[in-house]
Design brief:
single chain; 5-stranded antiparallel β-sheet; 4-stranded antiparallel β-sheet
Amino acid sequence: MLRSGEQPAELQRWHDRLEPLVAEARKRIAGVDPSELAARSGCARDPDGFLRLTCLWQQYLIDLPDLTVRQSDTGREPSAFTQALLLTYLDAADGTAPSGRWIAYRDLPGGMFYAQAFHGYAEIHLVRELGDGGLEAFCRAAERLGGERIEIGNAGYAFQILPRVHLAAVYWLGDEDFPSQASILFEDSATHYVSTDGLAVLGSRVAEALMEAARTRKE
């Protein structure tokens, strides 16, 4: 488990790579026709030239051709991490349709190396935070976040995290012999849009959102 002030290795690696990631993405995206960019990424293209997309329940506008990123509701510039995520998403997007085939983090390309860490800071943490009323709290939180029910585990919900990237959260109720478990699952098409370490960060953000939704409900 992470101590206070610590962060997952994947997130730290993203922070370390932000500047070159964004610079390279901007350079490549600048040469792509906006209509093609929208088609490949699944973004909406506004009449005024913006690309519009939702990421982790927040809508953003990306101005073309300068590629500035703003929150659509406030007009504010998001964090460096969010800008890097959105611009590298546009850069990587190749138009592959979301598959609907769910896999664990360890089954993503290169995912086995960080699978145990991801399990600890996202999945185990989620079960512990939900506590004794875990299954009920999980369902309430997932429905509050707009999750779509899927037939995996005792309860499973899929979330659209980016236009062409979906993640799922699944809860298995424990018994006398086995504790309750939670999993964050990924479509096997997700790495056509986001790198494996970026998906780890998105997975941890989904777990955090579920925990926050469960806490808010209690209050």
